[in-house]
Please model this.
Amino acid sequence: MTLRTLTVARDLLREARARRWVLALFAGITLLLVALGFGLELEVVDGALAAQRLFGGAMDRSIRPADVALRPLFQAAASIVFYGGLLLGISVCADFGPSLLAPGRIESLLALPVRRAELLVGTFAGVLALVLAGALYGGAGLALMIWVKAGVFNAGPIVAAALAAVAFSALYAAMLLSVVVVRSAALSAAAATAVYMIGLVAGKRAALAQLFSPGLRRSIFLAVTAPFPRLTGLADAALAVADGEPLPWARLAGLLLGTALFSAGLLAVAIALFERKDY
Amino acid sequence: MAPRATRTRIAVGAAALLLAAGAWISGLAERGARPPERPDVSFPKYPRQAERERIAARQTLPARPAAAGRTDEDPVELRDPFLRSLPLGDGDAFVVLEANALRHSRLGELFVQCVLADHPEAFAEIARETGIDPLKDVDRVAYAGRAVVVSGFFDRVKWDAFQKSANARSAPYGDGATLWTSEGDGEAVASWRDQLVIAGPIADVRRAVDQVEGRAEPRRKDVADDMAYGELYGVVPGAAARDLLPAEDGALAARLAAAAQRIELHVDAQDDVAGVIRVTGEPGQEVDDLARSLGAALSIARVKAAATDDAKLSALLEHAQVVPRDGGFTVEVALPADVLQEFFKDCGKRRAKPTE
Model:
């Protein structure tokens, strides 16, 4: 990554701050945390959970170690952070690309001593930095809030946030690619949603392939889903941490690298198309 | 700088390579070894299908025989003769071991191997001397109050040899039993239709036969056929529980004895050992406190297991919980077979030791 790419990323973050995007993102996450903070009512007695309540309603009366009893809560939190975070990211970032390529703005950007590839990669990096910060703020905030209320710390929501940020790189690469083809926020969100949906399917493709009879249809299904990021696989790693299991490092490294390569591939196509465009 | 068309071709080629590499690596990661799954524990909370079938197959005895006033028009309600025979009084504890099922469990195999390691001819000798093959002929063993009741196949038992060696007198008793008594000790052994062998104080042995033949009603109404699930089950009065807990848990045992009126237990031991303990007492603070104390004790045990890197015990204790209910609570706890395997670690050493 060149210095000019980093400059583009920094400019994007600066602009996001100036246009109150950052404020809106963090205010939204804070509101969600506050709502959950008031809703969760946890009582922990003598290292064992005497009562577990959510929004005032008793959930479980069993007496068991608090960290074990709260695992479903941490798993739910990790799921919300991962899947909800990705959807929030799509809606928040859908307009970034189209505004970058807006008439009047793109001409001034292209007039700068910056290559087109650097412009696109810089935008990509800036948005990812923003998403990572937001995700970690939400994930860490949720984990800390439960820690303060129940006295039990679980890294599941934080791991989910970090993995969601990596997964979002695939979604945002698709968003940028669609924006280069057609400058539309709606189409950008639709492209990301499509990758999101196929990514969910790809994570369970081995099991879902059994639904197709062996032959051409199953082969097509496996071929189409093969390059897509395994979003459910990434989420499962976060859920494993929330469930008190160790992080499956070897498997996770492969899934993360696969996601990064998919993002890089889409970004390369976007750069190729961007290079050919006349503005 | 390369012309625009060349740069585009390079970018498209790179994209194709990246996507193909991503697909390959993701595929490898998918096929990669998954982390070991946490042991799945099935607690014996109720009779499973196989156990329901076993209970039904054992119900061969009319609950109200003709002697008790049954007419042919009455629907025939059948009971398990073994459970009906248990000569229990109020406050007596009883524990039933499903010997045949335990024999084929991991622990049972270990036990048999352990005995054979020290005494290779042990079971063969018993079979030769008594006519009972302990590994095949014994189905269930119950410790009921002061008596022991064994069910199984006793048609080849060498009763004559027993009578001679015990210096006992035999006499028929009831419709289908034979009673052996010896002078002075007040103890007796009875055999009922080659299905049950009962040993203990004479009064208890007679009562067991009377119950199974319908001349007496069981005094305890809480021993139902449908509680025969798990490889070990039974009922222990709260006061008797004091003796079951290890000495270092004295405070907890005293609390259990004071708060619990009835403790019903069911244990599965086919592989790892999973137990359900239902504690019933007078509703109140004492029972609630006991439930919390047990919950805390289980938490501490899990922390200890984690601290000593006993991952399997720690994982199984994660399933442990205390579930409060009206007038009591239920404890669910599991132990890995490896922990109990430790009891058998010295097997065979006695035999290996050279004679001095």
Notes: The first helix of chain A runs from residue 3 to 18. The CA atoms of residues 107 and 279 of chain A lie 7 Å apart.
